[in-house]
Amino acid sequence: MHAVQAAPASAGLPHVRMRGVGKVYQTGTTDLVALTNIQLDVQDGEFLSLLGPSGCGKSTVLRCVAGLESTTTGDVSVGGQPVDGPPSGLGVVFQRDVLLDWRTVLQNVMLPAEFEPAERQVALRSKALYLLQMVGLGAYCDRYPWELSGGMRQRASICRALLTDPQLLLMDEPFGALDEFTRDQLNLDLLRIWAETRKTVLFITHSIAEAILLSTRVAVMAPNPGRIAEIVEIDLPRPRTLAMRDTPEFASYSAHIRSVFERLGTGAR
Ligand SMILES: Nc1ncnc2c1ncn2[C@@H]1O[C@H](COP(=O)(O)OP(=O)(O)OP(=O)(O)O)[C@@H](O)[C@H]1O
C-alpha cells in the first residue's frame, strides 16, 4: 500500500483520465497485449468499478493509474497531471494486505506517517485511532496483524490507505480473498466510508453483485486484448443496502452485465 499527501483534483477535469492507453508486456520472445485503447474518465468523488474476468487487464489499468507501470501507448492523468510515477494524493489497497507482522495494528496504520514531522505525526495518530474506531478495530490497536482475521487485516489496510486523506483510492480486488459474510460487511463499511469522505474510488472486482452494490458506474472489461466493452451507470438509490441485491432493479443491472459478458463469450461471478 502506498499513501502520500492529498492533492485536490484539477477543477473541471476528471480526477482520472485515460486516453488511448495500451500496454504490451514483453514475455520472452513474444509480446503480450494486455490493454488496448483504454478510454476512461473517473470523475472527482465517483466510485467506479472495473469488472471483468481474470487476466482481462484490470490490475494493469490500476497500476498505470498508480504510476507503478508505464503505458506503451496513450496518456494517463490524475488531477490534471500526467502520470509518470506515483501521483500525490493516492491511497492503494491490494487484494493481499501488506501489513507488517512485527508492528501493532496502530503502528501499521501509522506507516505512511513515518517521515512526517513530529507535530504532524501527533495529528495523524489521532486520525489513525479515529479510522480504526470507524471500522470497528478500536479495541485492536495494540494487537498484531497475526492476531486478526482476514477481514480485520483488510480493514486495517484500508485505514492505512486513508491515513493521509488521499483524494484518490485505488482498490485492487481488496475483498476477493474473504468469505461472503466478511465481504458483505466490508462492502457496507466501504459504502459508509465513501459516503462520509466522497473520495474518488477506482475499485477492481470479479463480482458483478459487488460492482453493482458499490458503484456509481461499472466499466465492464473484455479480455484478449484487455479493453472496456461497456460502461454501465448504476442508478440505485443511496444509502445502498445488502437487501437491495434482492430488488428487481438490481437484478436488471445484473442481467444486463451478464448479457454483455455472454456477448463477449466470457463470464464473471
Ligand atoms: N509483469 C507482467 N509481465 C508479463 N505479463 C503480465 C504482467 N502483468 C500482467 N501480465 C499479463 O497481462 C494480462 C493482464 O493481467 P492483469 O493482472 O492486469 O489482469 P487482471 O484482470 O487484473 O487479472 P486478475 O483478475 O486475475 O488479477 C494477463 O495476461 C497477465 O498474464
UniProtKB/TrEMBL annotation:
Taking every annotated instance into account, which residue ranges of this chain make up the domain ABC transporter?
16-248
What SMART domains is this protein classified in?
Answer: AAA (SM00382)
The signal sequence is none
| SUPFAM superfamilies, alphabetized | P-loop containing nucleoside triphosphate hydrolases
Q: What keywords is this UniProt entry annotated with?
A: ATP-binding, Cell membrane, Membrane, Nucleotide-binding, Transport
A GO molecular function assigned to this protein is:
ATP binding
Please name the InterPro entries in this protein's record.
Answer: AAA+_ATPase, ABC_transporter-like_ATP-bd, ABC_transporter-like_CS, ABC_transporter_ATP-bind, P-loop_NTPase
Taxonomically, which superkingdom? Bacteria
One Pfam short name: ABC_tran
Q: Does the keyword Membrane apply?
A: yes
Q: Which family does it belong to?
A: Belongs to the ABC transporter superfamily.
What is this protein's name? NitT/TauT family transport system ATP-binding protein
Organism, as annotated: Pigmentiphaga litoralis
